[in-house]
Every structure is written in C-alpha cells, then in structure tokens.
Design a protein that fits this description.
Strands 1-2-3 form a three-stranded parallel beta sheet. A three-stranded antiparallel beta sheet has the order 4-5-8. The chain contains 19 helices and twelve strands. It starts with 5 loop residues before the first strand and ends with a helix. Among the domains are: 320-369, no CATH class; 377-469, Arc Repressor Mutant, subunit A (Orthogonal Bundle), CATH 1.10.10. The protein is elongated, with a radius of gyration of 31 Å. It is mainly alpha-helical. The structure holds glutamic acid.
Length: 470
C-alpha cells in the first residue's frame, strides 16, 4: 500500500450524479494526484430503499468522464459499503463490550414524549445506566463523553462543539442494522483513510464521527468541509428545482475538460488572472486552505462561457469528432441520409467559433440538411417589414442566378452591389436573405453558408420566399 495520503469519495447512489458531488470528487482527486496519494471510491449503498444499481453505474461513468477512472494507479475501488455490514456491527459491539455504547429499549415515540415532558430536545440518556442486554427492538447508542470536541477543518479552521449539546446517538437500529455515521467511520478506518474532504452538510456529523474514531482506537482523519453550491437565488442547489445532474450537462454537450475546470473554480481560483487553466495547473495549485468558506454560486452561464472557450481551443478535427454525438441520426433534426459530412466540415470552423455547447451545433447547420427548414415567423416578419424587402429579394434571386463562380466572395459582391444601389447597409439586407434560406435570424456567416448550401437550393428557397411575400 502506498505511504501517501488516502483520500476518498463516498457517494450514496440515490439519484443522478449531482454537480456538487462531482466537485467534491474532483477536489479529492486533485489532492490525490499532487500529493502522490490514493483516491478511494466507496459507494455508500446501505440505504436499500433508495439505492438503485443504475445510479451506481451512473456515478462510476460520470467520474470516468471527468477523468477519475478505474485503472489509474492512484484510483482504488469501487468498494461497496454493503459488503462491510459485518464489520460495522462488529465495531459497534466492541464499543458495547467496552462500555462506550449501551442498549436502549425506548421506542422513538417514547423518546419524543420524554423530550416534550422535559422541555429538552433529543434523547435524554434514559438507558445510560440501566445495563440493558442486546435484544429485539433495542437500539445501541453511543455514550457521548463529557467535554468538548474540537474539529480541525482545513477549510473552516477550528470548529468547537460542546459535547453536552450532542445526544447519545444511535449506532445500531432496533433491527440490528448499522446507522450511516457508524458505517461511514468504520469504512474509513478499514480503508485507512487519512483525509475526509466532503460537503459542508456533513459538518454537524463530524464531532460525532470524531468521537467514534477515537472510541474505536484511532486518531481522526484530517477533515475538510467544502461549502455548498447555490443557485442564483442563493438557495442550495436541489435536484427538484435546479439542473444538477452531471449526466445532463454531458448529454447537452458540455465538454469534460470545461466541466472539470469550472467545478474546480466553485469556491477556489487558480493563481493568475484567468480561471481557465489546464488540469495540471489546477493539480499543482489547488489547496483546501484556499477554498472559500461562503456558498459557491453554480452559474450555468459561466459554465457555458467556459465551455465555449474550451470548444474554441479544439482543433477543427477535434471539434468535428466531438460533434459526432449531437449530429448522429438519433439526435439530429434532419433525416439520417441527408447528412453530408463534407458540408459539415466546410462549415465547421465557422460554427466552432459561435457555439457555447455542442448541443447548439445542429440548429446552426440544419439548413444544410433539411429539405425545407421551418421559417421562424417572427424572424421572417421582422426581416421583411421594410418596403424594400420584397424588391430586394427579387433582385437578389436574379443576380445570384447569374453568378458564375458560386463562392462566398462572389455572393457578397453581388448583394453588396444591390444594397448600395438602394442606399442600404449590408447589415440590414442580409437579414431577409438569411431568414429565407436558413429559417432563422442568427447563424454562421451568411455568404459562406450560401456557398456550402449550393446554388440550386439557395435559389429555390429564395424563390419560395419571393412567392411568399407576394
Ligand atoms: N455518503 C455520503 C453522501 O453522499 C457522504 C459521506 C461522506 O463523504 O462522509 O452524502
């Protein structure tokens, strides 16, 4: 086993893989790589009612997509918490044998009644000294010692907890099954974890877990709790309200490198004046001590901007390859046999500089592959509202029909001549042509688009437009 630090990521597979989980995993991964340690993936699958195998596979796949992959020499796992149930129970019974835990036969309702009667929240230690043996329906509770628990947290500094405010918490349920707090600690001990870097929501668990570590005979690991992610209303990102699934961003054409870079900057920034930096620099510079304490805004617009930058960093060939998925027959809006890779290649560079996500690509080039693109009515009304629109379209059809070499410069010169003769600006006169031919008011540069589309189709669509204007 490596002598370096041992980090871990311990997700519960209860849904799609959350971007917050992905950030936590990446923080652990970056530290593992820089410090020459090990990254353990442990699937916390003990809540059988909520776990589903496909969520587990989703996490494993999404991590691999982000570059945290089985097969890397510093990656270990995945381990499954459910495989260790016997060890969890054994650890709990050891605490019982040593007097550090005790059984209690109160039902949850009785615990509640006593709390109401005494006016004090939580469990009151009723069975601490009753010497109960294990038995059906009896829960095992940890005997919280007197004093204070000081958690040294690399992000939050020293956090102090008065033990008197912590109830004797449950380790084993009445049916004998281990609780999360216990299972999580026992697994970390079994896996020789030295650093627990996880979401801030677990900070209230930490004093309890630190006591458990000590009661079980080992010094607690180094803790770090990273701040939550919030949406634009500064509310904690929730899977019901917000778009949080890594899988969904991937589907929509966010690039893994952009996602990784963006997630790392939530609560942290690389040195220097740009946040868009290669992964190796992140690995070299990332420190938990520099992570901000306040909640981090998960800004989808900023993620898109990062993605646009990453798209522009690709070579054209890489871009074309990356587009294969969104241009595939299953995803694209045109009939499968009408896609022409040569036409797409001819437009690729112009499209590459104009999209933020790969999912935007099909709508930029669909006019090339659809028989007759649907014309956006609002765009058409706007582009043809001036009196000059109909005569200009007429003249353009006639002029384009005489062009000898069908090329962007020739097309431009031709429309320029018509535009100037009418005392107009090319910025305006392109609009009706663009909407007539592509169906939309925005897209890649017009003349290059017409060149690639070809003479026949362009003229046909312009004639249809003239007819439509009457
Ligand atoms: N399984 C826990 C969760 O997904 C993580 C616990 C931990 O990181 O310690 O929230």
């Amino acid at each position: 086993m490596s002598q370096g630090p041992r980090y871990r990521f311990a997700p519960s597979p209860t849904g799609f893989f959350h971007v917050g989980g992905a950030r936590t995993a990446l923080y652990n991964w970056a530290l593992t790589l820089r410090e020459g340690g090990v990254f353990v993936l442990r699937i916390e699958d003990t809540d059988e009612s909520r776990n589903q195998p496909e969520w587990t596979q989703g996490i494993i796949d999404a991590l691999a997509w982000l570059g945290i992959e089985k097969g890397h020499p510093q990656f270990e796992g995945p381990y499954f918490q459910s495989d260790n149930a016997a060890a969890h129970v054994e650890a709990a019974m050891r605490l019982y044998a040593e007097g550090k835990a005790y059984f209690c036969d109160l039902t949850p309702e009785q615990v509640q009644e006593r709390a109401i009667a005494s006016g004090k929240q939580g469990y009151d230690g009723f069975s601490r000294d009753r010497g109960l043996e294990p038995g059906p329906g009896r829960v095992l509770r940890f005997r919280v010692p007197a004093g204070e628990t000081i958690v040294h947290d690399l992000v939050r500094g020293e956090v102090r907890f008065e033990n008197a405010t912590i109830e004797d918490f449950v380790l084993l349920r009445g049916n004998g099954s281990p609780m999360f707090l216990l299972a999580n600690v026992v697994d970390d001990q079994l896996m020789s974890i030295t650093h627990v870097v996880r979401a801030e929501e677990h900070l209230p668990n930490t004093p309890k877990q630190q006591m458990l570590w000590e009661a079980l005979g080992s010094p607690a690991p180094t803790w770090a709790h990273v701040p939550v992610l919030v949406n634009e209303q500064r509310k904690k990102l929730s899977k019901r309200r917000d778009k949080v699934a890594v899988e969904q961003y991937r589907e929509e054409g966010i690039l893994a490198a952009a996602m990784v870079n963006y997630l790392m900057t939530l609560g942290w920034a690389p040195h220097g004046d740009t946040e868009i930096v290669p992964w190796q620099r992140i690995v070299d510079e990332f420190r938990l001590e520099d992570v901000n304490h306040s909640p981090a805004f998960f800004d989808i617009q900023k993620l898109l901007a990062f993605n646009g930058e990453y798209i522009r960093k690709m070579t054209v060939d890489e871009f074309i390859e990356a587009c294969a998925h969104v241009l595939s027959a299953a995803a694209a809006p045109w009939p499968a046999d009408s896609f022409d890779p040569a036409k797409f290649r001819a437009m690729a560079e112009l499209v590459q500089t104009r999209v933020q996500v790969l999912a935007d690509v099909p709508s930029m080039v669909d006019f090339l592959f659809l028989d007759a693109p649907t014309v956006d009515d609002t765009a058409w009304a706007k582009a043809t509202k001036d009196d000059w629109a109909a005569p200009l379209l007429n003249e353009t059809v006639a002029a384009f029909a005489t062009i000898v070499e069908w090329s962007a410069p020739e097309l431009k010169a031709s429309l320029e001549a018509i535009t100037e003769a009418r005392g107009l600006k090319l910025g305006k006169t392109q609009a009706p042509i663009r909407v007539a031919v592509t169906g939309r008011s925005v897209g890649p540069p017009l003349f290059e688009s017409l060149e690639v589309l070809g003479r026949d189709v362009t003229l046909r669509r312009l004639r249809d437009a003239v007819a439509r204007l009457g």
